[in-house]
Amino acid sequence: MIKSKKIIVSIFLFLFSCTLCADPYKSILVNHFNENGAGVIVSIYKFGEKEFEGAVGFADIESKIKLSPEMELKIGSITKQFTAVAILKLVDRGVLSLDESIDNHFDVSNQLWKKITVRHLLTHTSGIPDYISKIYYKEGLVLGKSKEEIFSTIKSLPVSGVPGEKVEYSNSGYFLLGLIIEKISGMEFSLYLEDNIFKPLKMKSTYYLASSDPKVKNVIGYNGSRKAGNFSGEVAFSAGGLVSSAEDLQKWLNAVRNRTVLSDNSWNEMFSPYILNNGERSNVGLGWGIGELNGEKVFVHAGGVFGFSSFVVWFPSEKISIVALSNRMDHGWFNWFLEALGRKSSTQKLSDLSFTVLRESLN
């Protein structure tokens, strides 16, 4: 958990004193990022209105295609926020409970699974190890595996400790949530999200990445100056298989601000920190990392997969939302951007709130 009282304060001051000042933001991007390398898109909204949106760098370095704000990029683990919303919509319908055992949905002989609830999966407290880092760290995401193969892998992994004991980032939990969504709804995960989230919010540039799509509309991912490997959306599935744009993610954050799509009770569940078995308050909600700065809450999640990195940040008290997308697999650039806005450099980074997302930084 971030403890520094100074972190982000300067961002508030900068944003408040600079309403609709696009040029300073653009100057920061141009001065801080290599315009001849992989690119970055930054979108900042305040009270639901656009404060700034801009991009620097290339979507395709070799073809000299510039990155532009409307382009669609792979968002990795930010997918988990939409998986959480999909689960909560089933809860709102009364066909699922957050505190029911996942044993109700899976035929698994492991008795420890009987103690794992849907809430444990959502809060990374199930104890089921991460299948991507354990098994498919590089090879599987490139080559692709079926959902059945991945489920077989996940159920073979030994449960670590007691469910609810500790937060341990795991893509496995969100993969299983996708299977639960499909089982209860009778729909494919991608179609359920399309009908229940993306269409209502008019998110026309957000979709599930099929393995047949080697690149996303001319946006190529890079690890440094090297092109990243191909990406199989089926392997990441409901843990990280979506593509989106900065504008669409701001539509999502506007829904967060206005508390649409879900019931009030579900919104409260999403942004409430999970209480561990020992009574301690964790730094995770349902699909969000949670922090507190000078008494003000901040919510954040990051994503990273094969040449792409992304962030969404929400400051609820001041209604400020930040979306940052890059076709470079490096989460450090986002901290550099925040520091360029005036935050004092610190070893305690904003990305620390995204529950060790760097485990997904596949080089």
UniProtKB/TrEMBL annotation:
Molecular-function GO term, any one: hydrolase activity
Origin superkingdom: Bacteria
Signal sequence bounds: 1-22
Top EC class, one word: hydrolase
InterPro entries in UniProt: AmpC-like, Beta-lactam-related, Beta-lactam/transpept-like
Coiled coil: none
Keywords: Hydrolase, Signal
Domain Beta-lactamase-related: 37-330
EC number of the protein: 3.-.-.-
Keyword Transmembrane: no
PROSITE patterns for this protein: PROKAR_LIPOPROTEIN
Protein name, per record: Serine hydrolase domain-containing protein
Lineage summary: Bacteria, Pseudomonadati, Pseudomonadota, Gammaproteobacteria, Cellvibrionales
